[in-house]
């Protein structure tokens, strides 16, 4: 039996998104049907709508979600109907070269549902990041469902499914921030502010937030920044150096992803320090650096895909920290909206008015 539900679709490049009738198949082998309770609006959804990811329109948008498993395929044992889950886009295969080496967070063959969700006329939909969760019910691979404590608010917990996990993991996993480290984060949207929260959790001493927008910096202070730098009027490299005894920070995280912010991160870091790139650049961007500086400054230059997270390891742990009051996920939920509010949420995101708008069902 197929399910007829409502969902947010980008029908063609650049056109405003619309709410459409979606046909969702019953779960087959290895699949789960999830009743979505909440789904955050991420910059990547907007990238899909603008044709910046690929041209496989129409897209079923939404991918930062939590909900309740409604049904599973016959062979599924990892989750069961009634489980509260966060959806992930890293259902690891266990068999690729990364998984076999014990580094499943780099898995090169992650799973999605095999069956397709469609529009009422049978047009096959491309689900954003292999999820598609601005919809009342969605079909995913069972491995994309990570069971967590149901005491958590779905709107807050769902954010761990993408941007907030990417930021937390950029600090904790990729940057390996440790007790007493100095950390600077360039760009304090949902991802950068999560990196700040991650640096605090990991025990960083000094946490410097850099943005062009004062609103973002005041949220950064709430989430753990010890110092803030408004780069619209101040050179961020000089400011970070002077806040770190003239040396630069141990770990600098670029949560914007542009050549100029990457260069700032590169030079605002102490000798032998670490740069983490978590913001996503666009194809035409090029980076130019003196190779002697790359050598002479030492340390490591890393990129962070999805915060190098392993959902089965990280989601339940972070939800537990949230429930203990040690990680303020609610601070990322700027507003809750209805399914037909996604287009307006894109505008607010563009104007920098929100960390996250979250669709609740
Ligand atoms: N690596 C991953 O797995 C992953 C996952 C999710 C999102 N992302 C990426 O992370 C990036 C940030 O996402 P977001 O949701 O936080 O976006 P956002 O638009 O909410 O935040 C970006 C922030 O950067 C600030 N900014 C822009 N230019 C700046 C500059 N020159 N100097 C300082 N600050 C500047 C903006 O004011 C804004 O606060 C995006 O590129 C997004 O695609 C990456
Ligand atoms: Zn794998
Ligand atoms: Zn996302």
UniProtKB/TrEMBL annotation:
Cofactor(s) listed: Zn(2+)
Domain of life: Bacteria
UniProt keyword terms in alphabetical order: Metal-binding, NAD, Oxidoreductase, Zinc
GO cellular component: cytosol
Metal-binding is among the record's keywords: yes
Domain Enoyl reductase (ER): 14-359
A GO MF term: zinc ion binding
BP GO annotations: formaldehyde catabolic process
Similarity remark: Belongs to the zinc-containing alcohol dehydrogenase family.
This protein's name: Oxidoreductase
């Amino acid at each position: 039996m197929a399910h007829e539900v409502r969902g947010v679709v980008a029908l063609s490049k650049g056109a405003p998104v619309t709410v459409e009738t979606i046909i969702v198949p019953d779960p087959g082998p290895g699949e789960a049907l999830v009743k979505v309770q909440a789904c955050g609006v991420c910059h990547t959804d907007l990238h899909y709508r603008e044709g910046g990811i690929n041209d496989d329109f129409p897209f079923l948008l939404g991918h930062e979600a939590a909900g309740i498993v409604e049904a599973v395929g016959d062979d599924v044992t990892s989750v069961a109907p009634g489980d509260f889950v966060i959806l992930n886009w890293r259902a690891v295969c266990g068999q690729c070269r990364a998984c076999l080496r014990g580094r499943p967070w780099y898995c090169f063959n992650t799973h999605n549902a095999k069956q397709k969700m469609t529009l009422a006329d049978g047009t096959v939909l491309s689900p954003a990041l292999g999820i598609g969760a601005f919809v009342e019910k969605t079909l995913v691979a069972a491995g994309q469902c990570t069971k967590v404590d149901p005491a958590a608010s779905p709107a807050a917990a769902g954010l761990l499914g993408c941007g907030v996990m990417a930021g937390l993991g950029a600090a904790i996993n990729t940057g390996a921030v440790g007790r007493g480290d100095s950390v600077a984060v360039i760009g304090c949207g949902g991802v950068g502010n999560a990196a700040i929260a991650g640096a605090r959790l990991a025990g960083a001493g000094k946490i410097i937030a850099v943005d062009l927008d004062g609103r973002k910096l005041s949220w950064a202070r709430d989430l753990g920044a010890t110092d803030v730098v408004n780069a619209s009027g101040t050179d961020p490299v000089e400011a970070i150096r002077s806040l770190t005894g003239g040396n630069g920070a141990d770990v600098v995280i670029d949560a914007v992803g542009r050549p100029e912010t990457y260069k700032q991160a590169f030079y605002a870091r102490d000798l032998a320090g670490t740069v983490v790139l978590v913001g996503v650049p666009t194809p035409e961007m090029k980076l130019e650096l003196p190779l002697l500086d790359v050598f002479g400054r030492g340390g490591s230059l890393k990129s962070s895909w999805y915060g190098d997270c392993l959902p089965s390891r990280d989601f339940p742990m972070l939800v537990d920290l949230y429930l203990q009051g040690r990680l303020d996920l609610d601070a990322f939920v700027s507003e809750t909206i209805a399914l037909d509010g996604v287009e307006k949420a894109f505008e607010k995101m563009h104007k920098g008015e929100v960390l996250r708008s979250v669709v609740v069902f």
